[in-house]
Amino acid sequence: MDWYKKAKKNINPAKTLKIMRINAGLTQAQLAQKVGLAKQNYNSLERGAWPISMLMSKKLADALGTSYLMFFRENKSRSP
Question: Which ranges carry the HTH cro/C1-type domain (predicted)?
């Protein structure tokens, strides 16, 4: 279980987004189009260069068929 704890420490909204996009079988360009972004702007979200806003999280969640809360889960394994 140590690998799981280490992996969980490194999860953030940008990584969650990338994992969910890949699992949905979408390219960055396809998901960007679904949520109304230019591919370059979407790429900034997935790299973590831009934060994912509440509105964008809802658009992404709708496009990916999940809850917007996936992007706001608190990482409880980190120290305050």
Answer: 17-71
